[in-house]
What we know:
The complex is a heterodimer of chains A (about 70) and B (about 900).
Chain A: H1 2-21, H2 24-29, E1 35-36, E2 39-40, H3 41-64
Antiparallel strand pairs in A: 1-2
Helix pairs in contact in A: 1-3
Chain B: H1 2-30, H2 39-46, H3 52-65, H4 71-82, H5 86-97, H6 102-109, H7 114-147, H8 167-183, H9 194-222, H10 226-233, H11 239-242, H12 252-268, H13 270-278, H14 285-301, H15 304-314, H16 325-332, H17 336-376, H18 389-414, H19 420-431, H20 434-443, H21 449-474, H22 481-484, H23 506-528, H24 533-543, E1 557-559, H25 562-573, H26 575-588, H27 601-615, H28 617-627, E2 629-631, H29 635-710, H30 716-748, E3 755-758, H31 760-778, E4 780-785, E5 793-796, H32 797-814, E6 820-828, E7 832-839, H33 848-851, H34 873-883, E8 888-892, E9 898-905, H35 907-922
Parallel strand pairs in B: 4-6
Antiparallel strand pairs in B: 1-2, 3-5, 6-7, 7-9, 8-9
Amino acid sequence: MANRTLRAQRLVALFMLGCLLFSYPLLALFDSGGEVFGIPLLFAYLFVAWALLIVAMILVVECSSR
Amino acid sequence: MPLAGLILLTSCAYLGILFAIAYWGDKRADAGRSIIANPYIYALSMAVYATSWTFYGSVGRAAVSGVGFLPIYLGPTLMAALFWLVLRKMIRISKANRITSIADFIAARYGKSALLGGLVTLIAVVGVIPYIALQLKAVSSSFLILWQYPTIQMPNSGQALGPLQDTALYVALLLATFTILFGTRHLDATERHEGMVAAIAFESLVKLLAFLAVGLYVTFGLYHGFADVFEQAARLPDVDQLLTLGGPAGTYGSWVSLIFLSMLSILFLPRQFQISVVENVNENHVAKAIWLFPLYLLAINIFVLPITFAGLMHFPAGTVDADTFVLTLPMALRQESLALLVFVGGLSAATGMVIVETIALSTMICNDLAMPLLLRWKALGLAQRADLSGLLLGIRRGAILLLMLLGYVYYRAAGEAYALVSIGLVSFAAVAQFAPAMLGGMYWKQGTRAGALSGLSLGFLLWLYTLLLPAFAKSGWLPLSFIEQGPLAIAWLKPLALFGLAGLDEIGHSLFWSLLANLGAYVGVSLFGRQSSREHAQALLFVDAFKVAGRGSSLWRGSASVTEVIALVGRFLGPARAREAFAGYAAQRGLASAAELVPDADLVHFAEQQLAGAIGAASARVMLASVVQEEPLGMDEVLGILDEASQVLAYSRRLEQQSHELEVATGELRAANARLQELDRLKDDFISTVTHELRTPLTSIRAFSEILNDNPELDPAQRARFVGIIVKESERLTRMINQVLDLAKLESGRAEWHTSALDLKEVIEDAQATTSQLLQEQGVALCLELPAQIPPVLADRDRLLQVLLNLIANAVKFCDREAGRIGIAVQVLPEALQVDVRDNGCGIDPADQQTIFEKFRQAGDNLTEKPQGTGLGLPISRQIIEHFGGRLWVNSARGQGATFSFTLPLGQANAAASDAGRETEYGV
């Protein structure tokens, strides 16, 4: 049960992190129109942040269920 | 035309496969081996979120606003992190209360209110119909485009054709048939459709594969990876604006409002509620969906921008609608099978959405709109009909058909006024209105029915005014001046800039006003209103869903007959199903058959749950009320319950008090026991001391008697001395026995007292006379120092004399051998008389001054010196003096004689003496 509340708290933390990553101040940092490896910076940032968030969710969900 | 035939054949084959999967799923479910009972199927079926709006519309939106298509998928990703808290609670609540739709959920939370259920249904239907229209449009136009292969040309809009030539009509009818076939095969109390879920999961897989296929082909076949696409796209005009925010991609404000909107819709769209809450098999499946569902969304979006740019580069501007790039690109590149796959993918996206949405809406229409109205319509006599299960199915099938046709009508009427993506957002904004009532209902106990009603109505009206009516105006149903000048040319009522609020985009503007009014009214009315007891009970069930162990409301009083209840449930579920359900319930309770059931609150609750599955919580309550004489919980009952509670409290308090008293009594008993043991020990000591003391004189008597007996020729002088000793020892023995008896009497309080007022002077002079013989023998002088006047004291004359004799005898024993002198003095103290008996003997060690008052203790060494007395004189004297209320003590120092003093209180004696005086006066 303690494990479950911990999992819930970790997920809430991820939710907040996601809110932060996908909103104004951080987003503006990457909104400059540059490129990384030929890929537009904002596009790359959004998908990388999204993917990392999903990886973190996998870690939280799958690790705490064991 | 062979091509059209091929397309039709493929479509029909695809629908056939779907139906086969659904049929197989249902069969497996009936056999108890569910195929959907695993988290992967659950997460895949959730992807019904991605409709043809995603499949075709994302590219269309990306062509206009670049990365602006993303918030609609980022929001659900964020919400997925909260699934474990929010969605799981929704599932728990719905399972416990047999909730089968979002309308049911809200109605049940606010006291099973039929009005609220109806309002939610209305909002959902009005909000979602355009969305269904959108799917029909997507399917029909993709069909028309593909049909013209190899030419790529935007089809004439379906509206240009007559209704009978319009493919959208046939699509609508086909989908309606399909939905009816496996959405409403039978009535089920849990309202779950395993086969349908299996088919939806399959569809999610198909649309993902189709989209990925196009994306991979375009990105890696047509170009050399992402970098290549973006590099070439850089030559397009205005491409920079598509890749940054702040341009057409939208400001940060609209970006955030879209994320927020899509967060709410992933929970509150009727189809999402149906799939993720109602069709959920096991709430632990939510855990896997937390990451699997966002992963799905990521996968289906990763190729959107490459496809968009490829389309923009491939087709001259304005010739091809960006909404169709996904289909037209493979067609233009002569990839027939890929194009067909895309068509099937789009078909799956549209059918999946339409099937689930119409099933969810038809349940709501039937349970929360049609049934409450029909049941209240007395003229129909519906409440008396024997079997209503057929009617229920009929209503649902009718509702599905009606919804599909409404969608079609909307599609015909609205036409091309709006791009696909905007229609979707209008729907999202409508269902977002459920958020305050739903979330508030789950986490806030004070939310009331009136609050939810006013919040929902206000929010809905504002949504209507700021989003739907402008959409109508743009479609030409209302004059455009409505938008531009405001109704009746009142500027501050302009629907897209209400109260002059400009600078937000349409969605953000509408969302702000409608949710502000919604939340404000909900919270405000709730805080200033009152909950009924039923609302309160439901609020507890919902908010404490994780704490409540599943039992329903116990606040129920009433009477019902079991057969009536079973018959009632039978009318909606079918008699056979009802009997089965109640037999199962009886078996659960350990009863042999349903006939043995007792019509109690639990049974009624069970029946209500069964009915709620079929006709909704609000209607179930109405129906049960018709057979159950339910007595509402009046003030009396509430007071009664309170009274019971306070009685219980009083009992427990009394119990506590008694146990405390018991503890005290136990303590007293223990103390008494200890005292008894102590006394027992004292008695043993006393007896052994007494016997020891008695043996001393007895031994000497016996020794001298034996000498006399054995020596008859002893000379007379010797003989006389021995006999003298025997006599003296016998006297001592007698005295000792008398004193032991005396002491026992005094200690037990059985001694006789003849108290009277005494003149102490007389008593002292008597004592002097009595001891004069002894004093002469020992050569001791006694002098008295008596004041002239001594007030009388209250005492027993003989006892007081005994004390004086005792003290004098002691003084004689211990005073100086050669010049013995004893003095007796009396002092008159304020409240007492003090008598001192002074001798000039060797005195008493301070160590012995207390012990001499103990029984059988004498000053000096008992072993070496011959005892001079019995050792009982002083203890007896002290007992006597204490009985008179005085004190006996000794003052002495070694070698300076000893003074024994005692006091006798004066107070009562004066009164007694005056009485005695009067008595003498009268000569009594």
